[in-house]
Design brief:
This protein is α+β, with helices and mostly antiparallel strands. The chain folds into 2 domains: 75 residues, no CATH class; 36 residues, no CATH class. The strands form 2 sheets. It has a 3-stranded antiparallel beta sheet with strand order 3-4-5, with no helix packed on it. It has a two-stranded parallel ribbon with strand order 1-2. It contains 6 helices and 5 strands; from the N terminus they run ααβαβαβαββα.
Length: 145
């Protein structure tokens, strides 16, 4: 229910675990192990003892719309969202810097020509750079202010 939100938070550099198929038990276990805040639209799950007693931190996401969700995150968690390309948007892994010459045949020619800095996710075999997509992300974050 918050898959898109998870991606945007990763785009802002936050360490976000997203498991679409996880059961409530699995989510609670994971959150407890790694001291994470559970972001959820599922009010039924929040009736669980672990949340009621404050054992697991959580934030109930009030809205379906991404912009409103991002807005709520900023105000409720007191964070400022801005693009910070450090994590893989797909898998949450930390990206590693790669040399420009190493990506020559791995990225589109116009990207190679115009970009200087490249990052790489080992797990997804995916390259990242601050191109148009990055600007779109920045605009989304700016638009929630
Ligand atoms: Zn990845």
């Amino acid at each position: 229910m918050v898959g898109k939100l998870a991606k945007y938070l990763r785009m802002a550099g936050y360490d976000v675990l997203y498991i679409n198929t996880a059961s409530d038990d699995q989510i609670i276990k994971k959150a407890g192990e790694s001291d994470r805040i559970v972001l959820t639209r599922d009010s039924l799950m929040l009736a669980r003892r672990e949340f009621k007693k404050g054992i697991i931190k959580y934030l109930f996401i009030k809205d379906d719309k991404l912009k409103n969700q991002l807005n709520q995150i900023e105000s409720d968690l007191k964070v400022l969202l801005k693009p910070n390309l450090v994590r893989c948007i797909e898998c949450n892994r930390k990206l590693i810097k790669v040399k420009k010459e190493d990506v020559k045949n791995k990225v589109p020619p116009h990207v190679y020509k115009t970009q200087q800095n490249f990052l790489y996710c080992k797990k997804c075999d995916k390259y990242y750079w601050r191109g148009t997509h990055y600007d779109n992300i920045r605009n989304t974050f700016l638009s929630i202010k």
